[in-house]
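# step 3/5: fold
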Amino acid sequence: MRLKEWSALVVAIVASELAGVLGSVFTMPAIPTWYAGLVKPALNPPAWVFAPVWTTLYFLMGVAAYLVWRKGWRRVSVKVALGVFAGQLLLNVLWSLVFFGLHNISAGLVCIVALWMFILATMMAFARVSRAAAWLLLPYLLWVSFASYLNYSILMLN
């Protein structure tokens, strides 16, 4: 792998992880205060699970974006796929802002459903360019499916 490719891989991973860092700006202050006071479903994982899971998912997102990028930025399918990818990253941060930052559980549910649809759209767009990239997003889709269940359950319980 040449230096340009290594650099692109690092940029893709860092950009994805930065979305997580930005989301954590809204999440972290709410965990010991507002979120701690909510009634949660029985399947709610312990708090320590979330950071390593999300860090891993953002890493996989970055690798997937890199695999698509390396197919050639001049290709329309690459531009479309990375555009949809950027959209889902924005929705990811928006969910953290709405759910944790604004303490709006119902609007959070709307955001996370939109996020789930954008992840699926990203996977479909990525599959047109790189099947491996699409498969790398499957754990993310599954985790957001679980997070959607948690968001819905918290809404119903509170």
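# step 4/5: annotate
The chain has six helices and no strands.
# step 5/5: archive (pending)
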